[in-house]
Specification:
- It is a single chain.
- The protein is an alpha/beta fold and 392 residues long.
- Helices cover 37% and strands 14% of the residues.
- The strands form two sheets. Strands 4, 5, 6, 7, 8, 9, 10, 11, 12 and 13 form a ten-stranded mixed β-sheet that branches. Strands 1-2-3 form a three-stranded antiparallel β-sheet.
- β7 (240-242), α7 and β8 form a beta-alpha-beta unit.
- It starts with a strand and ends in a 6-residue tail after the last helix.
């Protein structure tokens, strides 16, 4: 079997843009007319530029190759093997890894369809019959206050109650988001720490023991500020403390992990087994949150999950993009014994359902793994065409 053609999709999402303002997909087609689809996560360029980058990589490395030879294809793109204008990429950045991830997903989709098996059956089989999921706190349907459920205790309480009523048993929010920015991490002021604690307290009092609470910071605090905040909220028993400091300094993240009882989670901004190795060896995180549209794809994520098992680490794949990456996450979750919980975009309804021929199945707080071959999802071509991103 050979890959003979490809097509990219840049999708503009409708308001409220849950999962991002646009999604970038790639579809590969084999000489036996089997198609596979993948998604790149947050490649840091204009989406139409990303589309052209994917086309370049497909033209250079993918067309003419066997989709079954995923390991060889992955290394060809990662190291730049056989490309006459440059011999190797040295250390590929997130741009290359995002593109490679999308292509790798699409190859697995083809392989699964060719063998008439879901991908999880090719990576160890179905270990989990259903997958617990969590959601960010979105404003409650009846809340017209325009106050953020992340930083306002009353809005957080209303949102938490609404999501628990939907069936969720875990809720994530960033109570320090109002001190975020593009600057270096900073020491949170005392009034911000007090307000953040009040939000955490309000959510815990609302949900009781019906739901876990996940503290989803974005590395906006200094190590000392993070430790001060952790000591305030330990009594509310969060399931995790996500990216308590920026992820590039694994030593400082490990310092946080050593002084708090809250498990540290990290990984959405990392790629490949090489960066995740440091998290594990330095004991910087107990919960790994690889984004499959950035980390290197499905097989790379499976390798990372296997590494984590040796450290008694768990996986909770990150998701803030479209349903194709979600489908890839679900395949890894299903076959990984150390799966903990899956991030979801609500109940995978709304536009995440509209863009697929058949939506991802979510029931009472759990995702039900598909039984269809490959990724188990099919792109709704008409919907994709109607939401095609056009440069203004």
């Amino acid at each position: 079997m050979k890959i003979v053609d490809f097509k990219t999709y840049v999708i503009r999402t409708p308001r409220p843009h849950r999962g991002g303002r646009y999604w970038v997909f790639v579809k590969l087609r084999s000489d036996s007319s089997i198609e596979g689809i993948g998604e790149a996560y947050k490649v840091p360029f204009h989406p139409l530029t990303v589309s052209r980058m994917i086309e370049d990589v497909c033209e250079t490395y993918v067309v003419g190759n066997d989709p079954f030879q995923i390991e060889r294809l992955w290394r060809s793109v990662y190291y730049g093997e056989g490309y006459e204008s440059h011999d190797h990429h040295q250390h590929p950045d997130h741009t290359v890894l995002g593109i490679l991830s999308a292509i790798e997903m699409a190859c697995w989709d083809i392989v699964g369809k060719a063998l008439d098996q879901p991908i999880y059956n090719l990576l160890g089989g179905k270990y989990h019959e259903r997958l617990r999921s969590y959601t960010y706190l979105w404003p409650a349907p009846d809340d017209n206050s325009r106050k953020s459920p992340h930083t306002n205790a009353e809005a957080a309480s209303r949102s938490a109650a609404a999501h628990v009523a939907e069936g969720f048993t875990a809720l994530k929010f960033d109570p320090l988001i109002d001190v975020m920015g593009n600057e270096d991490p900073r020491e949170p002021p005392l009034d911000r720490l007090e307000n953040a604690e009040s939000v955490v307290r309000a959510v815990r009092e609302t949900v009781g023991n019906k739901a876990d609470i996940l503290i989803g910071t974005h590395g906006q605090s200094t190590t000392s500020g993070t430790i001060r905040f952790a000591k305030r909220i330990e009594k509310y028993d969060p399931l995790w403390f996500e990216e308590p400091v920026p992820p590039e300094n694994r030593d400082e993240m490990a310092r946080v992990a050593r002084v708090t009882s809250i498990p540290v989670a990290s990984g959405e901004r990392l790629s490949t087994k090489f960066e995740f190795r440091e998290l594990l060896e330095k004991q910087a995180a107990a919960i790994l949150q690889m984004a499959l549209g950035r980390v290197g794809g499905i097989l790379e994520a499976r390798k990372i999950a296997g590494m984590a098992e040796a450290y008694y680490g768990q996986i909770a794949p990150h998701l803030y993009c479209g349903p194709i990456e979600a489908a890839a996450n679900i395949q890894i979750d299903t076959c990984s014994p150390n799966f903990l919980i899956q991030e979801s975009i609500g109940r995978f309804d709304g536009f995440h359902a509209d863009i697929l021929e058949k939506p991802i199945l979510w029931e009472n707080g759990y995702i039900i793994p598909p039984t269809e071959p490959g990724l188990g999802v099919v792109l709704n071509e008409q919907c994709a065409k109607e939401h095609q991103y056009v440069k203004e």
